[in-house]
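ASSEMBLY PREDICTION REQUEST
Request ID: AP-0331
Submitted by: J.K., bench scientist
Number of chains: three
Total residues: 1166
Priority: normal
Notes: Please return the full assembly, not individual chains.
Input sequences:
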Amino acid sequence: MRMLVAGKRTSERYLPEKDMQACGLFGVMNVAGERFGGEMAISAMVNMKCRGNGLGGGFAVYGLYPEYKDYYALHIMFERSCPQAKEQVDEFLTAHFHVVYDEEIPTDMRANVVNPPLVWRYFVAPRHQEEEGLAADEFVVEKVMFINTQVEGAYVFSSGKNMGVFKGVGFPEEIAEFFMLDRLYKGYIWTAHSRFPTNTPGWWGGAHPFSILDWTVVHNGEISSYGTNRRYLEMFGYYCTLYTDTEVMAYAVDLLMRRQGLPIEVVAKIFAPPMWDLIAHMDEDRRRLYSTLRMVYAPLLINGPFTVIVAHHNEMFGLTDRIRLRPITAAAAGDYVFLSSEEGAIRAVAPPLDLVWTPPGGEPVVARLHSRDHLASLARAV
Amino acid sequence: MAVKCARRGLRDMFLGDVRPLAQIRSHLQLNGWEAEIDARGLVHKELNDLIREAALGGARKIVLYNVSGQRYIGTRLFLPQKVEIHVHSVPGNDLGAFLAGHRIIVHGNAQDGVGNTMDDGEIIVHGRAGDIVAMSMRGGKIFIRDSVGYRAAIHMKEYTGKVPVLVIGGTAQDFFGEYMAGGIVIMLGLNLKPGERHHAHYIGTGMHGGVIYLRGEVAPYQLGKEVGILEPNEEDQKVLEKYVGEFAAHFGLEAGEILKDRFIKLLPVSKRPYGRIYAY
Amino acid sequence: MYSYLLPEFLVERRGDRCIKCRVCERQCPNGVHRYDVELDMMFSQERECVGCQRCAVFCPTGALCVQPHPASYRPNASWTREKMQDLKKQAETGGVILTGSGNDKPYRIYWDHLVLNASQVTNPSIDPLREPMELRTFLGRKPDNLQVEIKGDRVDITSELHPNVLVETPILFSAMSYGAISYQAFLSLAMAAKKYGTLFNTGEGGLPREMRKEFGANAVVQCASGRFGVDPEYLNCAAVIEIKIGQGAKPGIGGHLPGEKVSANIALTRMIPEGTDALSPAPQHDIYSIEDLSMLIYALKEATNYEKPVSVKIAAVHNVAAIASGMVRAGADIIAIDGLRGGTGAAPKIIRDNVGIPIELALAAVDQRLREEGIRHKCSIIAAGGIRCSADVVKAIALGADAVYIGSAALVAMGCTLCQKCYTGKCAWGICTQDPYLSRRLNPEIASERLYNLLKGWSNEIKEMLGGMGINAIESLRGNRDHLRGVGLEEWELNVLGVKGAGE
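STATUS: Completed
Returned structure:
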């Protein structure tokens, strides 16, 4: 499968240094599918301000564009230093897509952000995809990757249907203010991220959420197995271009869930498998399943501390590493399900809560539209 | 890919928004021995500035309202006078870290790091608590009504009569009592369903001091290999009566009901669990 | 099991000089020397000898010569004597091989490939013997700028300042805990630091209560993974609080002070029961990420009312520059970086000899990165790990350090001979032991004088070097790589160090 453009490096030695970071995460979903504004997500990030350091913030919103829900919504940033980038992208898009509508994403220039790029949104449908022999999704991924790797100064924030990513350099509330998220948008899932990188790329594309198609990942932690994971994913055509842990996570989710069709409940056990000590005490069937997962997917064990909140259409889930080195708190209030780095942030923004719980490491909390699946993680939670 | 350095320098996420005391003093109502603080809209340091201000101003009971995630409550009080702090709603991480003999009562849940390296005093949580409760605690008492997260009681330690005590009403997640070097930990399992075992694996792994008392079921494989199981003796019964009694009194429960069930006692097998792994 | 190990040292006794005074027998804690009354002869059990040279130094007639044992296996560049001995030791014990002191493997020592500049013709060198030569250094976070208010002829500072600590010379004693070293050695370091106006570091073993009032102002107190001896008074009595994340000799792992070393007084200072192992976990369990580090930094600032600078010490590892940037952003006022050759009282040999990177490269990378990000002034950098002489100090400062930590050098000044047996607790020099018979050998009055002399001698040498460069204040050397040139280094090494080759 032609997935991404291979890097041009002659040796691993010339890979850029990997970005390391830690963060604050928040996600809220209305499982009845009702759309709501960004106030909760934004205020929660303000509440957890000291988990980030002002070098990145971002939001993913689902149910964002109901009027264009059948079209891929591309959020694309253009660096102001590359005036030709937009022209190139416009040409490229026109050649490969039907662009049904496009406009500049409205921004508030009074917001305290640095070097804001031009951010544009396009609603598109693939053109000539049959000729290239690709499914629509694959077609979109390939074109997105082309823009990301071949057009200097352009970068696609998100490319899913009826969703979008808004992100940039600043504290999350500043990014929200810049994109006027609280005033302009509604969605049934909001995930948010406050970044604490150990360096300053200061590049808007480097903030979270990280997205491919309608998958978004916000992530806290540093993956010690990064090199192993990255080089395994390369065999499947995923080339990491940003050198963040999160990128590996997003590609691994895409590979296992979208391409290989595994449910999150199984994928969680690939990323964060139980210890052999505990597998030894499982019943025969489960022992066989978990042992086999560890055998087959060993290169995708995500080692080291992580919490992720992954979202895509109709679903949001949170997961921590196998020995829970990063925090997560889940909560429910009516149809709302919350995931957060800290309980205080949920309490600060949510209606009175029915339930608050913390699942064990490696146990996903899965919120699905029109279901109570998130309660499944209660059993072993505290 | 073009990567540019946008914002040079440093943005202070912790102190950057801190206002001077004069601007936030209206959040504090000081009436002789009692003080009230409205924590709404206060960042971590501001709230602690006001708590310190109240304590220095003579307050002995400080009630905090609208707390949502502010950290280090009680930490900046290395003072001869001792205070009682009531926290309404959710205190932030490191509640009572390095606590120097004060009393903190949380009317709700607490987050990670309750009583981190606490020296003395008392913390009572009317709810659950997050990870690393009582980490490296060396004195005082912590009572948690419900359950706790990962690595509770990690590396608690005791010396010369200064024995920290942690009582947990519910259950705990993995690595409970890891590296324990001292202190008394009691876990009651009150919220476990009949037949349900405690949740933690690797209980007491690396433990080399102190004692854990467990009420409720636990399978041997859930225990770390550095601990042994014993039946509590009479001395232990006295310890349990004392601290379970205090626990029950804090949360309006019947101590006798709790104590009539079976407890097991976990002790370290050795004071030197790793003495033999080295070649000299 | 019969041991197949060869002796490490050869003990030769010249019969014509030996007067059978039995000093060697009394001085050796390993039982190498023995006097046989019946035969009226001295015998040596050299298998036990660690090569500490205590007997040779104290022999009144110079009758003893201790040297590496010449007996060896067939020479083999791959299977060296050391590798084979280690194999046999593990076959006999199944253990993790312990060692002490710093990495002794022939990794490149960059100090020895860097040369310093001196003024000739175009600008004058300065005579340090007669003209002022200033080494005073502030450690801590500096503001971006100073805001002042001018009232007539008064200028008032209106900026809020972060706490800074002043040292008279940019040389600090590195973390060595009471427990790892003897009380006498620990006290000697404190006394010398106080007398010279610099800092000593408690390591993670606490600060004995009786020392807090007198020596607190010269103490860097550590808050490490074991949190030994950390109480509010300990934190508040100190000059600087240091969060120990890692140590150059053993990056990424914890430490075990064996129970037999945990005497009553050590137990009291560490605040643990007597005779139990003092186990330092590998990580601090409240720090699993950079934002957790930030949480502990501010917890310590809260606990000390924002009156103390907080230092964070890490081992130099692969991504040290990015990590350092994160530490500064997390609120660290001082960052201490301990390189590959940093010492230890006990570490698995396999870790000591294989993990980490040299301090010179780490320091250069960190200083450069912090400058690129515009945050170098937000912290002070202390370099550690293999600083052997004043020239190393000068080169470290020119690469970008504010100050250095010295550990091994200070121990050697007190008598240590780097025999690497610190973990046995049988230090013949009274430094790394809790045996009162041995630790009594170290008189704090004398040992602190030796340390004071070391600081004085090095400081004078630094002044000589500075004067030669035409610099009379140490701050003008800091990060001044113009005064360094590389010799015998490859292109990439010069690039990382950010220095030109000699002659360029």
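REVIEWER COMMENTS: The CA atoms of residues 217 and 249 of chain A lie 8 Å apart.
SIGN-OFF: pending second reviewer
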